[in-house]
Amino acid sequence: MTLAQQDASAASSTHRDDTPQQASSTLPVINPATEEQIGTIPANTTTDVAAAVERAREGGREWASYSWRRRCDLLLDLGRRLADVADDLALTDTIDSGNPISGMRHDAARAGEELRYFSGLGGEAKGDTIPWTASQFGVTMREPYGVVGRITAYNHPLLYAVGKSAAPLVAGNAVILKPSEHTSLSTIRFVDLAAGLLPEGVLSVVTGTGAEAGNALVEHPGVPRIAFTGGVPTGRAVLRAAAEHIKHVSLELGGKNPMVVFPDVDLPAAAAAAVSGMNLRRSTGQSCQSTSRMLVHTSIAQEFTDRLVTLVDALRIGDPQGDDVEVGPLSFNEHYQRVLDYVEVGKSEGATLVTGGKRPVGLDRGYYLTPAVFTDVDPRMRIAQEEIFGPIISVLTWTDVDQMVELANGVEYGLTANVWTRSLTSAFQATQRLDAGMVWVNGEATRPAGVPFGGFKHSGIGQEGSLGELLGYTREKSVIINLV
Ligand code: TXE
């Protein structure tokens, strides 16, 4: 029995209050590299979610009574438990999501970093004093919400489970995780690691469909704070459902991110950054921050594209458990079909498919696709406007900076952008005009802890990965003190 089968059967057999309740129905766990069912996860119901909320409220009261120092020490202990099984969990993510093991090992390490980063910030959830008169003044106090519902997307399962529960836990909230139904295994195992360390109910997970378990969490009056990572259509549904209880909601949504290439660049370096920026090696291009639109100055477009195609074609595609494998399968069949459709859409719209977009030779099973590069892309085409969330790159050209800015900002999204030039002036002038929450200058899609990450326009509400995220999981209460 493989590790993931052990995990999957563990997920559906053992029951501990903070792991998903036994549910009358289950959802299949499919290994995207083999298309085989390797287990099941509980399809939690609204009733299961309500029970989880009750336990979270209970545990959350105790957790909030701890000093921040004690909470952070316990979370650092949890981080040590995580580190002990990091490789195991990375393999679980690879078998569950299809992402290459090297990428998932990176995620497991990054997850530990996020936990340490926020555990180091515990004392920063502080208020202010507001001077007034000698006998009257104001203070503000930051309090936890109580229970936070943390709904996550499928593409970085463990990193999201750990990295996105750290800040709300440090702030004194109980967290109920709702991972994607496509990749829930490592989240269940992570929550298991907290057993006996955190009070019962402080960190728990519900699994199942978004329409049932996810929506139940958003609609439950006992969960005043919702943080969602996922697609724009679901983000809208979450906002609507949360409106009933006027909940505080943060959204990390999709992107259609540009990489801008000025004519003065070091072309080999820029082409290599284009491949890294697509996150092909970490999650087969399934990343909200991927820069999938190459906006290249006309004068260097052909040479840049030739170099990009050479690098893309050289990527090693195969079984994601292989240490030297760079690109794995897409994570689930429905999405695989969707990305395959976009290849046809691109061709039917008149763009030129220069390379890729096919099942790799010799990989007859599994949701595999060779990374694709399109040229002759008109900015109004669907492949230039819509988030594909897969290994498909569109190359568009520009001649003047105003045209480039119009191209870059000409989509509904505003998550990231990457500007490549040797000129600091060009870089900053472009950065100031780009409508994106995060801009790399000569970057490679890396995000150090502490740098706020959040989208403009349809890419979301709020920021993560920084002190702002921690404070976003607190409510600020104002107190007017009168010395009598
Ligand atoms: O999202 P979905 P996916 C975005 C990415 C892409 C999408 C892919 O850009 O658009 O996520 O992830 C649950 N009420 N980001 O396909 O389908 C569902 O069960 C409550 C952005 O997973 O939106 C899953 O757990 N919950 C990001 C989660 O929502 C519901 C980083 C997401 O599902 C629900 C990564 C409902 N009605 C991906 N319906 C960033 N910006 O950081 C579904 N869900």
Shape assignment: globular
Beta fraction: 15-25%
**Average pLDDT reading:** 95
Distance between the termini: 72 Å
In order across it, which strands form the biggest sheet?
Answer: 12-13-14-11-10-16-17
Which regions have little confidence, pLDDT < 50, spanning 5+ residues?
Answer: 1-16
Number of helices: 17
The structure class reads alpha/beta
Largest sheet: 7 strands, mixed
Q: What is the alpha-carbon Rg in Å?
A: 23 Å
Name the ligand types: ligand TXE
Number of strands: 20
Q: Which percent bin holds the helix content?
A: 40-55%
What does this structure look like?
- The protein is globular and about 75 Å long.
- It is built from 17 helices and 20 strands.
- The longest helix has 20 residues, at 46-65.
- By secondary structure, it is an alpha/beta fold.
- The strands form five sheets. It has a seven-stranded mixed sheet, sandwiched between helices.
- Residues 151-155, 178-181, 210-211, 214-215, 218, 229-231, 234, 237-238, 252-255, 288, 387, 389, 415, 455, 460 line the site of ligand TXE.
